[in-house]
Amino acid sequence: LARVGAPGAVRHKPEDGGPVSEADLAVDALLRARLGAARPDYGWLSEESEDGPARLEAARVFVVDPIDGTRAFLAGQAAWAISVAVVEAGRPIAGVVHLPAMAHTYSAAIGRGATRDGGAIAASARTGLDGATLLASGNQMLPGLWPGGTPVVERHFRPSIAYRLCLVAEGRFDATITFRASWEWDLAAGDLIAQEAGARVTDRTGQALAYNRPSPLLPGVIAAAPGVHAALLARAVG
């Protein structure tokens, strides 16, 4: 928080990979030092750390996005998050999404439900697609992405995908989607939180998301209330 508005030097990743500030690197270093000291046998996969094959041999792996929504952070906005998950056998078993500027913390452990600031949360009970509230960027609503027909929804947006997954988890929105390939660190913690809150989370083809793969890039995500997910998926695959 002390670095909001003064993040230090900023560079841009190649191929429009987005900005990286000194604040991103500082959070990454702090998390790696603290979590690594607590669980030295865990592997490590982070947006801001050099990747390597060692994590593939670890029984459990930390999957971390030090600042999800760096552009929002740099602009002095509040909707950015720190996302940390523990992955075992390809699936998240614990996850935290912390929003420092909003003073909110979402968390979940497999089989134990999901919380925001310690209170239990649950996904929306909505059963119809038309008029549902959907978190997505505008370019995700282009007709060419919806072979089954573009859904009639009330669209909103938040810059952090981890936060968007948590908003679905607590039922403030009915769904979130992205058809763009997404990194494991963007999704792992929010995936578990949404599922433990009762939402259904898959890739854009309806398959479960698998983590700690050699290439940590996933084929998009559809996360929604159970009564909305099937209808979104049907429109997405035609």
What does this protein look like?
With 238 residues, the protein is α+β, with helices and mostly antiparallel strands. The protein has 5 helices and 16 strands. The strands form 4 sheets. It has a 7-stranded mixed beta sheet with strand order 3-4-5-6-7-8-9. Strands 11-10-12-16-14 form a 5-stranded mixed beta sheet, with helices on both faces. The longest helix has 17 residues, at 22-38. The model has no long low-confidence stretch (mean pLDDT 95).
Number of helices: 5
Order of helices and strands: EEHEEHEEEEEEEHEEHEEEH
Structural class: alpha+beta
Q: Can you give the mean pLDDT?
A: 95
Largest sheet: 7 strands, mixed
First and last CA, distance: 44 Å
Overall body shape: globular
Q: Work out the strand percent.
A: 25-35%
Radius of gyration: 17 Å
According to DSSP, the number of beta strands is 16
Question: What is the gist of this entry?
Answer:
By secondary structure, the protein is of the alpha+beta class. It contains five helices and 16 strands.
Give the SSE map.
Layout: E1 10-12, E2 19-21, H1 22-38, E3 43-46, E4 60-68, H2 70-74, E5 81-88, E6 91-99, E7 104-109, E8 114-116, E9 119-120, E10 133-135, E11 154-156, H3 161-169, E12 175-178, E13 182-183, H4 184-196, E14 200-202, E15 217-218, E16 221-224, H5 226-237
Parallel strand pairs: 3-4, 10-11, 10-12
Antiparallel strand pairs: 1-2, 4-5, 5-6, 6-7, 7-8, 8-9, 12-16, 13-15, 14-16
Helix pairs in contact: 3-4
